[in-house]
UniProtKB/TrEMBL annotation:
Every Response regulatory domain range: 4-120
PANTHER family in UniProt: REGULATOR OF RPOS (PTHR48111), TWO-COMPONENT RESPONSE REGULATOR ORR33 (PTHR48111:SF1)
Keyword tags: DNA-binding, Phosphoprotein, Transcription, Transcription regulation, Two-component regulatory system
Family annotation (Pfam families): CBP_BcsQ (PF06564), Response_reg (PF00072)
Listed InterPro entries: Cellulose_synthase_operon_BcsQ (IPR017746), CheY-like_superfamily (IPR011006), P-loop_NTPase (IPR027417), Sig_transdc_resp-reg_receiver (IPR001789), WalR-like (IPR039420)
CDD domains given in the database record: REC_OmpR (cd17574)
GO MF term (any one): phosphorelay response regulator activity
Any single GO BP term: regulation of DNA-templated transcription
Positions of post-translational 4-aspartylphosphate modification: 53
Phylogenetic lineage: Bacteria, Bacillati, Chloroflexota, Chloroflexia, Chloroflexales
Protein's name according to its UniProt entry: Response regulatory domain-containing protein
Species: Candidatus Chloroploca asiatica
Entry keyword Transmembrane helix: no
Amino acid sequence: MAQRILVVDDSMMNLKTIELALVSGGFEVILAPDGREGLRLAESIRPDLIILDVEMPGMDGYEVCRRIRRSSALATLPVMMLTANTSLHEKIQGLEAGADDYMGKPFETEELLARARALLRRSVISIQPQEQSSGKVIAFFSLRGGVGVSTLAVNLSAGLAQLWNGGVALVDMVFTGGHSGLMLNLPLRYSWGDLATKNSEEIDADTLDHMMLSHACGLRVLPSAPRPEDNEPINGELVSRVLKVLRSCYNYVVLDMPHSFSEPSLAALDAADEIILLIAPEIGSVVAATCAMDVFAQLGYGPEKIKLLINVTFERGGLPRKDIEKTLGRNLDTAIPFAHDLFVSALNRGAPPVLEMPTKPLGILLEDWAFHLSTEADRHRPAATGSPAHKRVHQRQLQRQGAKA
Ligand SMILES: Nc1ncnc2c1ncn2[C@@H]1O[C@H](COP(=O)(O)OP(=O)(O)O)[C@@H](O)[C@H]1O
Ligand SMILES: [Mg+2]
């Protein structure tokens, strides 16, 4: 059961560095960009510990701490001050405001974790039970639109559901009007728009189970509201909550992402175990991928979290693969060939090729790729007792091994 730490700092970089350190210690981290938001979140989520920056515009850390101590609901919450001001005077001021501990920046991860754990041991606050997180979250992303993010998210999620007999959720994060439901020919009932008005704590496994669409292949879909204004109230906190609940119920959660780094988008990327960064073989897409990779590095995402996929969305004149690899300084993981007629007719009929033509070259490629992105535990399941799709993948593996020998 992860304990929750709320971190309040006006610098995004500081927030991310502290978050990284705390997550490495197994904590769940919630971030607030200023004192007021910090107080609001402290009241609504009741963290187990709060880490406060001192110098912030508006309300400084001392004032936030004094208000926590005056609030009957929050008075016993352990508070650590984290700041560049390490003079004795500052320290005393912090402790007088009611802080339990005081630490200077820059900090060593080990020391931060040790102090956080010590404060939590001393605290008498009860810990909220939390869902176990187990499923794998895979985000399909590109800053450039039209490169096949939705097409491949739909095909991969359907492919996974077909391979492992369900247990897969597809989440449409395109709040400007996503089409995941349409691409699977599913009539819209509920959507993110119905979640937008709820308090994030009200959202549990039952709420989502009731709302999500069901496809015959075993895939469940959380569509975005067709009218962008209905999605407007969705914020990062709500997205984090929904993804946390979903990963406790499904083995795979596949995200069809927007082409932006909006707050909800960042929350989803943070929650992802793997990001599939899509690139079409043209200059705009390569530039967009370079930019996205820079941002991922700043956010502290390791290279193992990012997979690069080239999707050939046009017929002729594409940049050579090796030039793209040279520009990005990394090898591409997979390539999807140009298959306009198949993808467009599939789109119009709401029948993804991975389901409709599993024995044609495109279907085979997509099915093998879904297997490749599966968890190690699934990949080691016995095929003999598995789904027809698993048997097909296994058969092809044997054929390949036979051809090599
Ligand atoms: N490999 C491909 N070959 C040909 N057309 C493709 C391919 N992948 C996607 N498309 C087409 O490109 C268009 C944009 O795809 P879409 O998935 O909506 O992109 P995005 O979500 O990145 O905006 C769609 O018409 C889709 O059918
Ligand atoms: Mg899309």
